[in-house]
Amino acid sequence: MGPDLAGLSMRRDAKWMIDHFKRPQELVPGSSMPPILLPDAQLNALAAFLLKIEIQNAKELREAPQEMVDGALVYQQNRCGVCHQVNGVGMKLGPPLNGLAARRTRAWVEEHFANPQKLSPGSKMPPYRLNPRDLERLTSYLMSL
Ligand code: HEC
Question: Which residue puts its alpha carbon closest to atom 34 of ligand 1?
């Protein structure tokens, strides 16, 4: 029913998108899209995300294995990128996480989340109490990088 969202950045900017999320009918008379009722911070994040979707990465996004997408979401929700890099994106307070499986076992990575200082004395990484589902998803994602 709606238009393809890949390549939007060629036609729209963030302000238009956020106004349109809030009041679709005002910007596009007759639109059947309902207003998106989310806090501004989430509307901003959604607009930033949509502006990055191009034809090529839209295809990759569609074809990405669901368990990797789920793991990447846990990574984003916990803001691991404020200290780590994945594929060159993020900060460098901690080690870049690509190639982790060559350095660490799965058991080490899981235990490290609960108690980084025990496995890496002096570590500045905070402990994470992840539920078993998120722990499994996040670890699988990291071990695949
Ligand atoms: C405040 C900064 C900080 C945050 C936030 C942080 N880390 Fe870390 N992390 C570090 C530092 C510093 C190290 C290196 C010392 C150590 O092993 O604990 C590290 C180590 C690691 C290691 C071991 C890497 C290796 O090569 O040995 C993994 C895996 C890891 N972090 C994953 C994560 C994930 C996933 C998150 C989010 C849930 C996260 N970290 C959040 C700072 C951080």
Answer: 80
What's residue 38's pLDDT? 96
Q: What is the mean pLDDT of each run of 10 residues along the chain (145 residues)?
A: 87 95 96 96 94 90 92 96 97 98 98 97 97 97 96
Does the pTM surpass 0.85? The reply is no
Contacts of 111 (CB under 8 A, 6+ apart): 118, 119
* φ, ψ dihedrals at 86, nearest 5°: -125, 130
Smallest CA separation from ligand 1 atom 24, residue: 95
Token pair, residue 63, equals: 């074809």
Q: Which domains does the chain possess? A: 8-61 (no CATH), 65-143 (1.10.760.10)
Query: What span, in angstroms and rounded, lies between the C-alpha atoms of 74 and 56?
Result: 24
Which ligand 1 atom sits nearest the alpha carbon of residue 117?
18
- HEC sequence for 18-82: HHHHHCHHHHCCCCCCCCCCCCHHHHHHHHHHHHCCCHHHHHHHHHCCHHHHHHHHHHHHCCHHH
Q: How far is Cα 19 from Cα 2, in angstroms, rounded to an integer? A: 17
